[in-house]
Hints:
Layout: E1 7-10, E2 35-39, E3 49-50, H1 52-59, H2 63-71, E4 79-81, E5 84-86, H3 89-103, H4 108-119, H5 125-166, H6 174-185
Helix pairs in contact: 4-5
Amino acid sequence: xxxxxxxxxxxxxxxxxxxxxxxxxxxxxxxxxxxxxxxxxxxxxxxxxxxxxxxxxxxxxxxxxxxxxxxxxxxxxxxxxxxxxxxxxxxxxxxxxxxxxxxxxxxxxxxxxxxxxxxxxxxxxxxxxxxxxxxxxxxxxxxxxxxxxxxxxxxxxxxxxxxxxxxxxxxxxxxxxxxxxxxxxxxxxxx
Length: 191
């Protein structure tokens, strides 16, 4: 960021003892405002910038995790104003992708590989495609397994609802119960 081309304005807040005076520096990592906006020297709105506190609030990650991900190379391109981190919408999209990949079981090492490939540009598109296809196939297998587990859980819900409604003796014969479940729900369950 070119500090001479960007003056930072924080969202207004009520004055308090020790409040920042106009023109004094802002502590970006502790700023209470959600969005920090910049104005270039032509007085046109610049891209919205977010403090680490706001990004933590938006993503559910704490500031230490965001710093860790940056150190590990999972979040390159985090800007600075002075010593303070400032995040752009593009950074938020990157965090969203890291979150998606992580929550779908991709190891951090593989996420870092993806980020490094992306940083090397268009010549790595085929490798990135392969990485994403393999991960998609893994997620698909895991989803199928989870759906089998969900079917079994749904059967147990049906079983207990039936037992409460009709009594325990009504659900004592497992084979008859499975046959009835299939008839009533149109679903099968495997053990």
